[in-house]
Amino acid sequence: MKQLKGSSKTVALSVAERCRNILASNWQAHLNTIKADAKGSKEDIYTSKVHYMFRKGKPYIWIPEGDLLLMQIRLAFPSSNAIIDERASMSVSSTVPGPLLNLLRSIRKLPPRVALAGDLIAMNEEKVHRVAESLRESILMEYNIASQASYTVSSVLSSAGVNCRARCENFLEILDESSKYAVYKFDINSCSYIDGSGGAHDLDVEEVAAPKADQISLFTEKLIDGINQSQARRRALMLFCFEYHNASARDALMLSIDRKGFDILAKVPEAHSNNTQQYNWKEFRFTFKEEVYDIEAFCGLLVELEEEALESVKSYSGLG
């Protein structure tokens, strides 16, 4: 297998790294609480879609007012200092926007996800205000990065579908309508990574407690969708598979990105025992030589790789 320009050998991310990437790049989760009766039995499970952010290694959750789950929390724990001990869990899926989500559904492949269990803790107004200010600073930083982006980065971000909204846009609406949300802190007691095949991998809380929200993670969803919505860039992904993995792909989509590289889901031929050939979807990992920490570096390197792969194909096809 030929290596990427400026790359090291292909190295798979550890389970802990994949877990941290999911937590850092997403901002939506499903929060579950279990209603216990007087006998201690736990039958009724309440689930709600919530927004979250990490601050000092802890996730903070915004629950919509009027939500059934929130009503049950307040009914069972009316104190402002309530701790819902061991009865809360949070499920966070990897970001799978646009055509990628449709593809995963069609091949019955589940997006990897992270399952957290722990304590849901109410906060006083002062603490809620500090969390909101931290979120506001993060939103401003994200807006500045996007507004000052180069043409290369802007072209990728602007190619994302209309339903693929930036993280800052969603959170800005929450801050503007803060009275419509209740904020809780989530103390993590256990963590599991569930892969695309449904296999669970338990992790130490210390391994995933403080994911770094770098520029790559802030824009993961729009970068992935911007690449996948462009036929030209998808053809480039097919070239990557051919040039660096010797795989002739009929189609390809960006599956995930991170500081160390990216994963592609490509439709490639597989030979069968009866000498027939069938195309199936397969994952390919591409690893950078050095980590990249901002979207300019990531998109710039992606363009370099596209040009390199194209020139290489031209050279041995006689078109160069």
Describe this structure in words.
InterPro entries: DUF2470, Haem_oxidase_HugZ-like_sf, Split_barrel_FMN-bd. This is DUF2470 domain-containing protein. Residues 233-305 form the DUF2470 domain. This protein is of the alpha+beta class and 320 residues long. The protein folds into 2 domains: 18-211, Electron Transport, Fmn-binding Protein, Chain A (Pnp Oxidase, Chain A, Roll), CATH 2.30.110; 225-317, Split barrel-like, CATH 3.20.180. It is built from 11 helices and 10 strands. It has helices spanning 15-25, 68-76, 98-106, 125-147, 151-158, 167-176, 205-208, 215-218, 220-228, 231-245, 295-317; strands at 28-36, 42-55, 58-64, 83-93, 113-122, 181-194, 200-203, 251-258, 261-271, 277-287. The strands form 2 sheets. It has a 6-stranded antiparallel beta barrel. A 3-stranded antiparallel beta sheet has the order 8-9-10. β6 (181-194) and β7 form a beta hairpin. α4 runs antiparallel to α6. The chain is globular. The chain starts with 14 loop residues before the first helix and ends with a helix. Residues 80-86 have low confidence and may be disordered.
